[in-house]
């Protein structure tokens, strides 16, 4: 998990149950909106954050044209997101990678020993 993603996740955990726009999160953390967007997209894919869309009228309708609308996305942390521990996940990945590396080394050693004994 990137540093910005961790900042966003921790911010949402601190304010669990509240909705924020990406712009509000970016301003609060002092990072760019694109950085927040990337972090939020990753968290949405993992189902740690949900988005609620709201259509807001920007300009009212007139006789000759329709009203101009804007979609605002509100982000909220889920229960799964609140329980998510990125540090534990990274440690588990590192342990799994080390175990796989050990397994492959043992296979190579066994193959080498079998070849020498043949």
Q: How would the global form be characterised? A: elongated
Assembly form of the protein: single chain
**Name of the CATH homologous superfamily of the largest domain:** Winged helix-like DNA-binding domain superfamily/Winged helix DNA-binding domain
Computed structural class: alpha+beta
Q: Please count the helical segments.
A: 5
- Determine the strand fraction and express it as a percent band: 15-25%
Reported CATH architecture of the largest domain: Orthogonal Bundle
Q: Taking Cα atoms only, what radius of gyration do you get, to the nearest Å?
A: 24 Å
Strand order of the largest sheet: 1-2
Main beta sheet, described?
2 strands, antiparallel
Average pLDDT taken over every residue:
92
Q: Tell me roughly what share of residues is in helical segments.
A: 55-70%
Note the gap between the termini. 48 Å
Tell me the total number of β-strands: 2
Write down the domain tally.
2
- Helices and strands, in order, run as HHHEEHH
Q: State the low-pLDDT regions, or none.
A: none
- CATH class of the largest domain reads Mainly Alpha
CATH topology of the largest domain: Arc Repressor Mutant, subunit A
At a glance:
This protein is of the alpha+beta class. It has 5 helices and 2 strands; from the N terminus they run αααββαα.
